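2024-03-11 09:14:02 INFO worker-7 job=invfold-0412 stage=load source=structure_tokens
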């Protein structure tokens, strides 16, 4: 089980009312940053989770202040925060600090918006198929996680304070992760023996090493020179001396003709064919190749190795399970996006990949889309323990459900 402190996630207060996916509200209310099928994502909620995100980022570098760039497009408040909390930047120009605040905003806001929007999507999809999570299940999951990670209630309270979250945040985060896991469960991830056997048969190179040989080689320009080199070797002259006199290959001249750990396909095909048919410790040639005439001797043969199916099965099973899990996550995300992307509208300053009609700037496509790209993976990892974290990375999606009374606007506290 992952620890509370290591699992990336966000959470918001759950309003326990009947979930109704509304189709009304085509615009975006003035106090909101987005609207998901008529459900507003309030500026207050956004600012709260921007603080949590910024606090999580700051916690990765002890002593770093928490800077919350939540006032686009001018970022005057952010500039004031920087000057107050980082004395070394007190005299830096507004232009420079504004650019820095904008860059930080782009990075954090894409994660927070993904977090707030995706939770509506997942929960709305769950509602459509009748997935329900009871309060008792949520409490049980949280109690189990807390027992494993905190020795005392005081430690848990300290964690909440440090992360900027509330108990209600954590409870709802657990609820949404359980919803997400039930959506994943609709996509099979069981790995069969037949699948393992098929993978083993088609990926033989992953489970063994080919035969390799150590060689001594002279590459002569003509057949006559190759014959002369062979005769010199048979009369007892050293390979180093013969290579120095007859070889035209600069690489093997430096090694006295030695080539180590040669496998099929690495060298001139004529050389490979002759070398892998040759017995040990016998001078052979000349062999006509692409670059001249070879005289060769095999000095060592390392047999091929191969794991049995039984030996390889644990690793194959792990690989296939990971692939199946990724496929399930993609399927859940794709389905949610298909159902709700067109009904998700965002204000321009807050727009990102989960917003209808969004087009990423050419110089910021990666940052703006980071949250959406990792949504399923982070949510799935967090769901393993059903527990909170101080830092919200891309894809940790746990906001109030679509249609819940008050939505995100009435569900979160202001940033500490």
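2024-03-11 09:14:09 INFO worker-7 stage=emit residues=416
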């Amino acid at each position: 089980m992952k620890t509370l402190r290591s699992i990336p996630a966000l959470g918001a207060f759950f309003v326990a009312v009947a979930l109704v996916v509304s189709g009304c509200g085509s615009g975006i209310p003035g106090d909101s940053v987005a609207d998901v099928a008529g459900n507003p994502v309030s500026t207050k909620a956004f600012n709260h989770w921007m603080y949590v995100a910024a606090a999580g980022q700051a916690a990765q570098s002890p002593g770093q202040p928490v800077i919350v760039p939540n006032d686009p497009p001018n970022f005057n408040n952010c500039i004031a925060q920087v000057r107050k909390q980082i004395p070394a930047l007190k005299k830096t120009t507004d232009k420079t600090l504004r650019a820095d605040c904008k860059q930080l905003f782009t990075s954090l806001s894409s994660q927070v918006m993904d977090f707030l929007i995706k939770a509506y999507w997942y929960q709305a999809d769950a509602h459509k198929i009748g997935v329900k999570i009871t309060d008792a299940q949520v409490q049980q999951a949280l109690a189990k996680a807390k027992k494993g990670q905190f020795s005392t209630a005081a430690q848990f309270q300290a964690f909440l304070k440090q992360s900027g979250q509330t108990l209600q945040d954590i409870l709802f985060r657990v609820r949404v992760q359980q919803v997400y896991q039930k959506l994943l469960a609709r996509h099979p991830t069981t790995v069969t023996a037949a699948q393992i056997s098929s993978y083993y048969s088609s990926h033989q190179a992953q489970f063994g090493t080919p035969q390799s040989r150590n060689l001594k080689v002279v590459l002569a320009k003509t057949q006559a020179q190759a014959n002369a080199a062979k005769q010199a070797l048979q009369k007892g002259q050293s390979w180093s001396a013969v290579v120095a006199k007859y070889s035209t290959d600069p690489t093997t001249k430096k090694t006295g003709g030695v080539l180590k750990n040669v496998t099929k396909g690495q060298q001139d095909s004529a050389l490979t064919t002759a070398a892998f048919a040759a017995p040990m410790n016998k001078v052979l040639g000349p062999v006509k190749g692409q670059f001249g005439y070879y005289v060769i001797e095999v000095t060592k043969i390392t047999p091929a190795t191969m794991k049995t199916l039984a030996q390889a099965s644990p690793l194959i099973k792990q690989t296939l399970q990971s692939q199946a899990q990724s496929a399930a996550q993609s399927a859940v995300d794709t389905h949610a996006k298909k159902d709700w992307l067109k009904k998700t509208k965002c204000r321009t300053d807050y727009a990102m990949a989960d917003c209808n009609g969004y087009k990423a700037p050419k110089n910021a496509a990666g940052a703006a889309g980071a949250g959406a790209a990792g949504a399923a993976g982070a949510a799935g990892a967090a769901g393993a323990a059903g527990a909170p974290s101080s830092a919200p990375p891309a894809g940790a999606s746990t906001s109030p459900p679509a249609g819940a009374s008050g939505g995100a606007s009435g569900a979160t506290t202001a940033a500490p």
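2024-03-11 09:14:09 INFO worker-7 stage=report msg="The radius of gyration is 32 Å."
2024-03-11 09:14:10 INFO worker-7 job finished
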